[in-house]
């Protein structure tokens, strides 16, 4: 099995040498992942990164298995729901019911969202959808760096690099 490890930022993966970095946001992540797929033809993609949580009981390194977009809002058009992409059959990606729901969007979240989710990030939905469309196994691990509140910016800066060691304990081959 050919596995590729991806994260948004090099700063999130200190001492993890086997990672490719996509850049921040759904578009940057999509472009880079498609380039990597075209070059390496992987059968598995593993994403690691940081995320904010709305729930104080969620901390450390977690696995996400359901992915939605929190910034896709076409509710004013016909009867679409928040997170549903118009005229696209894939709006929610469910890999397993054992894991957390990650809501992806192109903004740094500092307050509660209307969509049902456990954590928020800026890339995972895009990565999961590409893997779904290309029949590539996808795994996603997020380190909770903040609690999506007024302190999130400072908390993220203080914590974004801390989860790499926990990820390394799962995948020692990344060193």
Helix content: 10-25%
Sheet with most strands: strand arrangement: 3-7-6-4-8
CATH architectural designation? 3-Layer(aba) Sandwich
Task: Tell me the radius of gyration.
Answer: 15 Å
Elements, N to C (H/E): EEHEEEEEHEHH
Largest sheet: number of strands, sense, barrel closure: 5 strands, mixed, barrel
Q: Mean pLDDT across all residues, rounded?
A: 94
Please report the first level of CATH classification, the CATH class. Answer: Alpha Beta
Say how many strands there are: 8
Amino- and carboxy-terminal Cα gap: 19 Å
**Whole-number total of structural domains:** 1
Strand residue content: 25-35%
- CATH superfamily placement: Nucleoside phosphorylase domain
Low-confidence stretches: none
* Mass-distribution shape: globular
CATH topology: Rossmann fold
Please, how many helices?
Answer: 4
Structural class: alpha/beta
Fold topology:
Elements: E1 3-7, E2 19-21, H1 26-40, E3 44-53, E4 61-69, E5 93-94, E6 100-104, E7 119-121, H2 124-133, E8 137-146, H3 152-159, H4 164-170
Parallel strand pairs: 1-2, 1-3, 3-8, 4-6, 6-7
Antiparallel strand pairs: 3-7, 4-5, 4-8
Helix pairs in contact: 1-2
Kindly describe this structure.
The chain has 175 residues and is of the alpha/beta class. The protein contains four helices and eight strands, in the order E-E-H-E-E-E-E-E-H-E-H-H. The protein has helices at 26-40, 124-133, 152-159, 164-170; strands at 3-7, 19-21, 44-53, 61-69, 93-94, 100-104, 119-121, 137-146. It has a five-stranded mixed beta barrel with strand order 3-7-6-4-8. Helix 1 (26-40) runs parallel beside helix 2. The model has no long low-confidence stretch (mean pLDDT 94).
